[in-house]
Model the fold of this input.
Amino acid sequence: MSKQIKVALIGNPNTGKTSVFNALTGLKQKVGNYPGVTVDKKEGICKLSRGVKAYILDLPGTYSLNASSVDENVVIELLLNKNDKDFPDVAVVVTDVENLKRNLLLFTQIKDLKIPTILVINMSDVMSRKGISLDIPALEAQLQTKIALVSTRKNKGIALLKSLIEDYKSLAITACIDTSSIDSAYFERLQKAFPNQDVYKLWLVITQDVNFGTVARRTLDVSKFQTKSITELKRLQQKEAIKRYQFINGVLKVGQVIDRTKAKDLRSKLDRVLTHKVGGYFIFFAILLLIFQAIYDWATVPMDLIDTTFASLAEWIKKALPNGGMLTDLLAEGIVSGIGGVVIFIPQIAFLFLFISILEESGYMSRVVFLMDRIMRRFGISGKSVVPLISGTACAIPAVMATRNIENWKERLITILVIPFTTCAARLPVYLIIIALVIPEGHFLGFNYQALTLMLLYLIGFAMAILSAYVLDRVMKTERKTFFVVEMPNYKFPLLKNVAITVIEKTKTFVLEAGKIILAISIILWVMASFGPGEKFNNAEAIVSQESPDILEVDLQDKIAAYRLEHSYIGIVGKTIEPLIKPLGYDWKIGIGLVASFAAREVFVGTLATIYSVGSASENEGIDTIKTKMSNERYSDGSKVFTFASGISLLLFYAFAMQCMSTLAIVKRETKSWKWPIIQLFSMSIIAYLFALVAFQILK
Ligand code: GDP
Ligand code: MG
Done:
């Protein structure tokens, strides 16, 4: 029989729990250098000696057992419930050698729950640089536990940790502080009411109810015991924290020496510059500008390659397969050009993710969070909302999930509601093609006009998000404000492997998720464009030749194709909504694109690609690139469809409209009601329509 040990990894955010988890289990999780990356629990298996297995659970970051966010609550619910299938045999508390004092608070709380607890002091590789020295035996004696000094970076101490886990039964189960001394009379009464329960556990259950109000109590019913007022209980919680810090200070006095001259190093100098009141913002925007510049200049080479590859692929299909067959047309015109319209944006999307993950990994992102908190406060959200908002530049779905570590429900709700305004990767293809069509190529002060426009669009997205947050903050009833705590991890050179994994994963998810929808919609659109009801569609050839008898053969074919498209099913849909979108500067073909992209906005480009290539019948021309096709698109009076005015109007529409079913679904899940996603859908669509309308009417 093999033995199994259940292990829970617990610790403050950013102490390296996930890194320790990876080192123990060999599983690869995404490691982040800013808070909020591990949202749910994750499990893995670690093989110890003699067939013993350890089940390792990676938990979200927790500051203390007095939960103040949904994230932290996961940990507390687990530790208070002995019947939970995941209840650990041994808790491994992961701490960062540089933040021992603050990290140990949680350790003492878990130890006082009488759970066998091992202490991991991680990041030992930075000790000599920071002038930190530790007396491990002294610390072990003071804390009455076993300590593993670990560096997951240098792969040190993991073997020791494994052997400590295996020997967990020899750990001393003693409390760090005498909790009852917080209020002896109250704790005595508590113990009398529940004689079989640990008194500190009772206390945590009570305070958790205080912090969370209506959390369902499955473990213990203490409702009859709420004899103290909330302010009184909060005061007792503070008293507990003070007692714990007194204990920790005593421990560290014996076991830790810090050479202060070394501690003031490069990091603090860099921090002073990067979080400077003026210079900090300047640097941040300079970095953003550089990123957008790079997205344009570096990505063109692979993009041109993809473009020509897809064009020749479509041509090859037309040649290789039977001419004029339905399947040939569907493949060449519907599927290949639809997919090509998405694949072409992979280089740019990958570049964006590359930069974001470098900023995260290097530790700079946390400085941005800190910097932005100064501004965000005024708009009813906190610096913590910046992480979801910046993640929103990749995709709104993980961003909405990343709001779980915002403690205050109102701040969290506001952040969820405004996230879809940030420019997600799905908008990028739309922006890129419209910008290429309507913004000239010149340079201004050495910066590319097109790159500047793209950056402006990102800023507009953020500005709208923040503005709406401000309005929502005013409209919704006020609650208490929360304190702001953010981890400031050390600067480090990003690990190439971590960056590469993020880029590949994110790009893959985007392409696969988007690809599925786009493929489906491409086929539907092709069918709708290739068939139509009634006389006009079926007799297109006869009608057109009769109307213009003395026309050249080539032009006649084009006219017939255009006439057919206009009277196909999709043409009818586009035409029906044309009156509504004409004031925005769009024709019925763009209308089709808009309708299709209400499910997912990245469908827009593929849709137009499908529509335009279906429209052109000149056989020997092959599939032109989408861009040329769009820029040659004209109204019947000869004026261009894609002008500066209609282009800007489209850009603004896509910047503000809520066109993503998946986001609506996740908002429903996170807010547990249809009310919020519906409000989001309608208000964002109305805002988008108004902005597009005003822009086109002014610019035309
Ligand atoms: P979690 O939030 O506790 O799960 O922490 P992560 O595992 O995501 O790690 C947070 C950051 O600390 C990442 O940037 C890691 O690269 C870094 N890190 C983890 N372990 C070590 C270590 O042993 N030494 C150093 N220098 N950095 C580490
Ligand atoms: Mg983690």
In short: Confidence is low (pLDDT under 50) at residues 32-38, 212-217, 617-624.
